[in-house]
């Protein structure tokens, strides 16, 4: 994690190490950390390697993989995302992150999976799926699956032309000590466009710097 957060953490030698740890390391904590690192510095071609970890037995690894796929855009991984998201035997913490990741794919399979997730038992999953549907369509039918599907069938072009997806990042209010330590100002990573996503599809008013507080904060 120290390497991943260092300015030089994306050098080829370290990228090779992250990939090796994701693929071969048996320790789930190491594997999850390597997934986080690969999400920060990886390429579109890494999406396939990352998506395979959604089948891992360890929940922390699967959550890390789903979060990583929020930062790397590759339509080839939507099938596995949809499969994990609609499997109600999957842990809800994984399905929440999958729902967020699906918000970047304006496609029928993503829409159908998100609608299915609206009907699942856990409210947090429902809300994450609804957020992604609103982002994809610029409409809001809350948690009514029938209304979503009815509207979708009635529209030949249901998805917005300019997809405004930015991966979420951690944000919180600054506390007392954050203001006191003025010599070490607290900064948070801003939401950004996933690697591989065409930035020209973003609306002109939705540049990354305008989205510091957009979406789910973690």
What report would you give on this structure?
The two termini are 18 Å apart. Helix content is 50%, strand content 0%. It folds into three domains: 72 residues, Leucine-rich Repeat Variant; 88 residues; 52 residues, no CATH class. The chain has 218 residues and is an all-alpha fold. It is globular. It has eleven helices and no strands.
Outline of this structure?
The protein is 50% helix and 0% strand.
Distance, first to last CA: 18 Å
Q: Overall 3D geometry?
A: globular
Total count of domains:
3
Question: How big is the Rg?
Answer: 18 Å
Assess the beta-strand content as a share of residues: under 5%
Q: Which residue ranges are poorly predicted, with pLDDT under 50 across at least 5 consecutive positions? A: 205-218
- SSE arrangement, N to C: HHHHHHHHHHH
Largest sheet: none
Q: Approximately how much helix is present in the residues? A: 40-55%
Q: Tell me the total number of β-strands.
A: 0
Tally of separate helices: 11
Instruction: Average the pLDDT over all residues and give the rounded result.
Output: 89
User: What is the SS-derived class?
Assistant: mainly alpha
């Amino acid at each position: 994690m120290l390497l991943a957060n260092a300015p030089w953490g994306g050098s080829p030698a370290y990228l090779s190490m992250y990939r090796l740890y994701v693929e071969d390391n048996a320790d789930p904590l190491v594997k999850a950390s390597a997934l986080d690192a690969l999400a920060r510095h990886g390429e579109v071609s890494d999406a396939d390697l990352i998506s395979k970890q959604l089948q891992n037995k360890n929940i922390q690894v699967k959550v890390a993989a789903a979060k990583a796929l929020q930062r790397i855009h590759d339509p080839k991984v939507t099938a596995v995302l949809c499969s994990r998201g609609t499997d109600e035997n999957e842990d809800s913490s994984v399905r929440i992150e999958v729902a967020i990741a699906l918000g970047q794919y304006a496609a029928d399979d993503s829409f159908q999976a998100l609608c299915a997730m609206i009907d699942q038992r856990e409210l947090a999953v429902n809300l994450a799926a609804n957020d992604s549907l609103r982002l994809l369509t610029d409409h809001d039918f809350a948690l009514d699956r029938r209304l979503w599907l009815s509207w979708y069938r009635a529209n030949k072009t249901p998805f917005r032309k300019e997809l405004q997806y930015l991966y979420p990042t951690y944000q919180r209010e600054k506390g007392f000590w954050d203001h006191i330590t003025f010599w070490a100002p607290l900064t948070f990573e801003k939401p950004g466009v996933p690697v591989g996503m065409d930035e020209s599809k973003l609306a002109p008013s939705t540049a990354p710097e305008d989205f510091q507080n957009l979406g789910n904060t973690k």
